[in-house]
Design brief:
The complex is a heterodimer of chains A (518) and B (179).
Chain A: H1 17-30, H2 36-48, H3 50-82, H4 95-98, H5 133-136, H6 138-170, E1 177-188, E2 197-198, E3 203-215, E4 220-233, E5 236-247, E6 256-259, E7 262-276, E8 281-295, E9 307-310, E10 314-318, E11 324-327, E12 344-345, E13 360-368, E14 378-382, E15 400-401, E16 412-421, E17 425-438, E18 441-447, E19 450-451, E20 457-458, E21 469-473, E22 482-491, E23 504-514, E24 516-517
Chain B: H1 2-29, H2 32-48, H3 59-78, H4 87-97, H5 100-118, H6 122-132, H7 138-144, H8 149-177
Helix pairs in contact in B: 1-2, 1-3, 2-3, 5-8, 7-8
Classes of the chains: A alpha+beta (518), B mainly alpha (179).
């Protein structure tokens, strides 16, 4: 029988053949890579050798501890990076030097030299029913529930989470949260469709749009992009970065949001949480009711008592101040709460945006010019040399005209045309303002062929500096999908020595509410 | 107030022993999801029976017995559908885990693990984080780290063993230094 020597009585690695073999077998078991024959061999070793049984307990415990501590070190690294500390110290463990495993034999006689196995799969019997880590999701559940919830939130949080666990035990098959609505959402993660059931530990990066999550507890959370978050359990969400707004009915009182250096527990309320300071701190704004907020240190320990925050108040954590809570201005508008009312910026293409001067802009067409009924619509050109009275080009809008070096434009209306896309948005909610500069006036603006502007406009001084104007375009003319916009530029007879350009510079400021899918 | 104090005490004890209780359930049932179910049920039972727990006595020993009974109950419901270790195996593991010295050692190991993780080379720490913190599959890691899936398995296995060894060595040093 194997036994532990004095040196091994506290678990020092057993270098005996059986000990090394047992390690490989246990490790394979925990990683769901153990054959049935190997399982029997491990069973035999554990039964026959108490030292191996103790080692088995140690290794399983080690494996169960990993997710919690990997998360801990990650938090520490963030703090050390911020402080400029060198995390690549000389104390690193170098696997290449220390981890040359001996070739050993398993029960079936096959070599188990791990170094030699890197690119060849072991031929094994069907494995035990043992979930891979992503299926069992121990990492998220473990790390977030215990590292962040329990350790960060302190005793009160622990009570809540523990009772959550107790309650959850009664419904072990319950889905912790459901994706109940999406709005122009683009995110990774396995669930992207409304109705998708989310799992404990499931993580998401929301790149665009917004989503609504309904937790099993009844709490409803609207998450807006860009955000990274995890489902912890039926009444807890972890926000790594971004912005969320929570509506918590009485049934879900105790709903919790875990954010960097901040824990927020609902006490019957509606509130919002967003990360700040490059996502190392967070802020909570209470819309109604009250919450209890707790500041956390870099490894998730509460750094003080819970602070009661009531309606129309806001506090934020401050890692620079040692993770204390400080008052901050209440800004409820920073937290979109109704997914159907979220106004999202539309990235519409301004004139000549991103196009080199002298090149044509395929997204802006010169549709018609005066005095040429046979004119064929063609792409407008970004002006190369601007007259001094023109405001300068901008990254999102440059001057376009008939050519790169226009001169001698005729008197009359030059019509520039573009298309803008409202696919996926509610057109009735479109709020569109065009910042327009023209040489020398706006004759009219059309949306989908319909007159959209109530007046024509000429620059006050046709020979003076051109000043951009803000033109608000009515929402009722927009429709689903692609819309056509035409700007008729009124050009006067040539009056300036540097030529007559009939140019247009237009920059969009457009928002609309995305269509909500439920 | 007495009830709240009792609850506080339960939460404190349970959370401080939870990793070891989970590991104990896991070592007996060898299926993480099943072990979580068992632990949840045991959690409920422990709270219901917490009045029977003598303050100041060995919580791990008391809670471990409850977990063991829950595992046995769980095994009966799963006996026909899942391949399991035999009763002799369970007895051997339970006997090992019943050692107060071993449980104390595991608590020490928990405290030492973070330091050892911090000593890993950055790439190895990144792999560990990807697998155990982010829950990324080995197949996806193979793409991310430009290695074969088997190579990722192998490296992760060596990282785990390096960490286990590091913890063991640290533990020994503490014993020798009497800390």
């Amino acid at each position: 029988m194997a036994h532990e020597s004095g040196n091994q009585s506290r678990g020092h690695w057993d270098t005996s053949p059986n000990g090394a073999e047992a390690w490989v077998l246990i490790d394979a078991l925990l990683e769901n890579r153990l054959s049935d024959n190997d399982r029997k061999r491990l069973e035999q070793l554990v039964i026959e050798q108490p030292a191996i049984a103790r080692m088995y307990v140690r290794v399983v415990h080690f494996w169960c501890s990993l997710p919690l501590h990997v998360g801990k070190v990650q938090h520490l690294e963030v703090m050390m990076d911020d402080a400029g500390a060198d995390i690549n110290s000389n104390s690193e463990i170098a696997l290449a030097d220390t981890m040359i495993l001996p070739a050993i034999r398993n029960a079936s006689g096959a070599d188990l030299n791990l170094d030699a196995q890197e690119d060849q799969h072991r031929s094994i019997d069907p494995p035990l029913k043992f979930p891979s880590i992503e299926k069992a999701t121990p990492t998220r559940v473990h790390r977030l529930l215990h590292s962040q919830a329990l350790r960060r939130g302190g005793l009160a949080a622990a009570i809540l989470i523990t009772f959550g666990s107790l309650i959850l035990a009664l419904w072990p098959k319950a889905t912790p949260a459901v994706l109940t609505a999406t709005a122009a959402a683009s995110f990774d993660g396995s669930a992207t469709s409304p109705g998708a059931k989310l799992s404990n530990g499931q993580a998401f990066s929301l790149y665009e749009g917004a989503v609504e999550l309904t937790f099993d507890s009844g709490a409803v959370v609207v998450v807006t992009a860009p955000s990274r978050f995890h489902i912890v359990d039926r009444n807890t969400l972890a926000l790594d970065s971004g912005c969320v707004a929570a509506h918590v009915p009485p049934s879900a009182m105790g709903f919790k949001v875990l954010a960097p250096s901040l824990s927020v527990i609902d006490r019957g309320t509606n509130f919002g949480v967003r990360t700040i300071n490059a996502d190392i701190a967070a802020e909570v704004d209470v819309f109604d009711g009250k919450v209890d907020a707790t500041a956390l240190d870099s490894v998730g320990h509460a750094t003080g008592n819970e602070l009661r925050v009531i309606a129309h108040q806001a506090v934020c954590s401050s890692t620079s101040a040692g993770s204390t809570l400080v008052s901050t201005p209440y800004v409820p508008d920073a937290f979109p709460r109704d997914i159907s009312a979220i106004q999202m910026s539309l990235d519409w293409h301004g004139t000549g945006a991103g196009v080199p001067p002298g090149s044509t802009d395929p997204q802006w067409t010169l549709a018609s010019v005066p005095g040429d009924p046979d004119w064929t619509p063609r792409p407008a050109t970004v002006v190369q040399a601007l007259p001094s009275r023109y405001p300068g080009n901008l990254p999102n809008g440059q001057w376009i005209s008939t050519s790169g070096t226009p001169a001698g434009a005729s008197e009359g209306d030059y019509v520039y045309r573009t298309s803008v896309d409202l696919t996926g948005y509610n057109p009735a909610t479109a709020e569109v303002v065009a910042q327009v500069a023209v040489d020398q006036g706006i004759a009219d603006i059309y949306i989908n062929g319909v007159h959209a502007w109530g007046k024509s406009m000429l620059m006050d001084d046709p020979n003076g500096p051109i000043v951009p104007v803000q033109v608000t375009l009515p929402g009722k003319l927009w429709h689903n999908g692609v819309n056509q916009v035409e700007v008729a530029v009124k050009n006067l007879p040539e009056q300036m020595p540097q030529g007559n350009y009939a140019g247009l510079q237009l920059i969009w400021k457009a928002t609309a509410s995305p269509i909500v899918h439920r | 107030m007495a009830h709240e104090g009792r609850l506080d005490e339960f939460v404190r004890l349970f959370t401080s022993h939870e990793v070891r209780l989970r590991a104990f359930a896991m070592s007996l049932i060898v299926n993480y999801a099943d072990a979580e179910d068992v632990l949840q049920q045991a959690n409920l039972t422990l709270w219901k029976k917490f009045d029977q727990f003598a303050p100041g006595s060995d919580f791990m020993a008391w809670a471990g017995r409850v977990v063991y009974l829950e595992v046995q109950r769980h095994r009966r419901t799963q006996a026909k559908t899942k391949l399991q270790f035999g009763d002799a195996f369970l007895d051997a593991v339970a006997s090992a885990a019943a050692s107060g010295e071993l449980m104390s050692e595991l608590a020490d190991r928990e405290r030492l693990l973070s330091d050892c993780i911090a000593k890993l080379q950055p790439e190895h720490r990144a792999m560990l984080r990807a697998r155990y913190d982010e829950g990324i599959s080995v197949e996806r890691m193979a793409d991310l780290f430009n290695r074969s899936g088997q190579a990722v398995h192998s490296v992760l296995s060596r990282i785990r063993r390096a960490l286990f060894d590091c913890v063991s060595r640290s533990l020994q040093r503490r014993v020798h230094h009497g800390t």
